[in-house]
Amino acid sequence: MFDIDTCLYYITGNSARKINEAVNERVFKNGVTSVQWIALYNIGKYEKISQTDLCHAMNKKPSTVARLIDRMEKEGYVLRQRSSEDRRVIYLSLTDKGTRARVDLLPKADKLSKIVSQGISEEHLAIFKNVLKTMSENVSKEEE
User: Fold this and answer.
1) What digits encode the pLDDT tens for the residues 46-73?
2) Disulfide-capable partner of 51 in 46, 90, 112, 120 (CB 3.0 to 4.6 Å)?
3) What residue stretches are annotated with the HTH marR-type domain (predicted)?
4) Longest dimension (CA), the chain
């Protein structure tokens, strides 16, 4: 019989929500949201990334990322630049303000990541990540 307390999507959803709340309380006090942080991280990681590639990296819909980048551009974190080879392609890069925010948040995010995983062996973390990846793939297969 179904029991919500042992249901994997319920357990993972609650855990993700608690971790996200902790991240927002401890890391993102300077006005940058967790979603903006993921964008800052990825844009900075690649120095220059297309908006389409950012959608894939963040696993977000293009319309969601477009609105996010609109807001981040207005706040002075991101620059948009159309490709000279293909006007449909928009490249994103960080402004000085975006770079500073990313650099400031990296150690805070790293610290929280260590707090979240404390007491869990590398082997168990690897298994956990693999299980989550498989669960995501299983859901994606069902959508096809």
Assistant:
1) 878 999 999 999 989 999 999 999 999 9
2) 90
3) 5-137
4) 59
